[in-house]
Amino acid sequence: MSAGRITESMTGRRLLADLNASTGLVSKYQRQISSGRRMEKPSDDPLATHTAMRLRSELQGLANDRRSISDAKGWLDTTEAALGSITEVVHRTNELALQGSNGTMAQKDRNKIADEIDQLIETAKSAANASYGGRFVFSGTDTDQQPYTVGGPDAWNGDTGGAIYRTVGAGQTITVNVRGEDVLGSGGADGKLLSTMRDLAANLRSGNLAAIRANDISALQTNLEEVTSARGIVGALTTRIESANDRLAQIEEDTTGLLSEAEDTDIAKALIQLTTQQSVYQAALKSGQTLIQPSLLDFIR
Fold first, then answer.
1. Which residues form a coiled coil (predicted)?
2. pLDDT band at 256; cut points 50, 70, 90
3. What is the mean pLDDT of residues 73-102?
4. Of 11, 25, 137, 229, which is most buried by a Cβ count within 10 Å?
């Protein structure tokens, strides 16, 4: 059987197909460079598309965890600031207790000290009414309820239910709340700070110096230890979430890099491919000039 004859028409059609293919590749690499995206549709690279979807899901989870950490950090910072104010109240109350226990002080001066302690009680309750994002941080789980009534009874109005948790990583949660009842107490004879301060004010007004020296001053030291312990817990939690945030930030950076490798255009590589295809296109045009009549070449151009 004799070989088929290659006609000028067949050559022209093949040249047109090659030129169209080359033009398509030039256009493809131009779009990749201008958009910064390597893939225009999933079928361009199914494996990379699947990888990109998984990485995006991981990044969303990381973003959620970091938002939770940010909320926890704000909550703990608010708690620490309030506990700092309460610590100052305890120190001032202790100074006043020592002054008032001096037997040479006139009773009218002890009454003035008692009045100041009354004001310090309200200051402590005001500090414990601190809120973050519209939520009271010392109210237990009932964060819409103001924990203490300033100018009113010393009862704690919070919820004795469970703790408030925040997620700080995959399967990791921390407790972020300190209950006001555990620091200031709820009035009455519970031995907490408000109770101690009320007893101290009453003993100052009655001139019961023995009770101040034997009970109130030592009770204040115990209350100070309780506040300090709460601050220590808050500080440790703050350190933990800061460490978790740093760890998640590194994971997020690494994951973003992997996503970029899967989706983004390698500009240097794309420029080389674009230049190569442009050269191929120009070479095909020149080659066609030697094979096809000028009229057809003109038509192509």
1. 234-261
2. confident
3. 97
4. 137
